[in-house]
Design a protein that fits this description.
68% of the residues lie in helices and 0% in strands. It has a single domain, classed as TorD-like (Orthogonal Bundle). The radius of gyration is 16 Å and the shape is globular. The longest helix is centred in the C-terminal third of the chain and has 21 residues, at 181-201. The mean pLDDT is 92. The chain starts with a helix and ends with a helix. The protein is mainly alpha-helical. It contains eleven helices and no strands.
């Protein structure tokens, strides 16, 4: 596989990992403002996601950064933590929630990925995030490591067994609960990127 493509894929997984594990802070916001979203080379959900996020960033580029970051933090909490949602519904970013019969965290999928991480000597950055190991941010982080290692067979297996099996449904829920185009865009971007990965790896 072309080295430039390999690097781009790993970087995208790390980008998604960061966005799912933590709210947008000032450092990330400033970095996002400098990013070029390649809308001309994308299509479908990937293109739509890029466009929504780019438009949100452009519309708020000269606004009150504190207010924008507060809005994004509130949206992050609403979408992923069900904060402020009376029914306690959210797009919980855990594979277990979407693949277990009772939709609970800390189920079989979590144990599966813990075993995979251990087999490669990988320890998720739990000191920073304190979330179960099947959090989407960790899964993306692990895929980036597999790409760095050139482990294409493992990439295909992990994509099929731990991302394609639930992220589409998760991103649909994200779209339901998101109040900002930034997170609506992230949902589409994530879904579109994994669809592209499916085609690339033949998963």
């Amino acid at each position: 596989m072309d080295k430039q493509l390999v690097n781009a894929r790993a970087n995208m997984y790390r980008f998604l990992s960061r966005l799912y594990l933590l709210e947008v802070d000032e450092t990330l916001w400033n970095a996002l403002q400098k990013m070029a979203f390649p809308t001309e080379n994308a299509n479908g959900d990937l293109k739509a996601g890029y466009e929504l996020m780019a438009a949100y960033l452009a519309a708020n580029a000269n606004g009150d950064m504190t207010a924008v970051l507060d809005d994004l933090a509130v949206d992050y909490a609403r979408i992923f933590l069900s904060a402020g949602v009376a029914q306690g519904k959210a797009a919980f970013p855990y594979e277990s929630v979407y693949t277990s019969r009772k939709h609970l965290v800390m189920q079989d999928s979590r144990m599966d990925v813990v075993a995979l991480y251990a087999a490669r000597g990988v320890t998720p950055s739990k000191d920073n995030y304190h979330v179960p190991e099947d959090h989407l941010g960790y899964l993306c982080e692990y895929m980036a490591l597999l790409i760095d290692d050139g482990a294409e067979a493992e990439q295909k297996a992990f994509l099929k067994s731990h991302l394609l099996n639930w992220v589409s449904a998760f991103t649909v829920d994200m779209g339901k609960y998101a109040a900002t185009d930034f997170y609506r865009g992230l949902a589409k971007l994530s879904r579109g990127f994994l669809q592209m990965e499916q085609g690339l790896l033949g998963a």
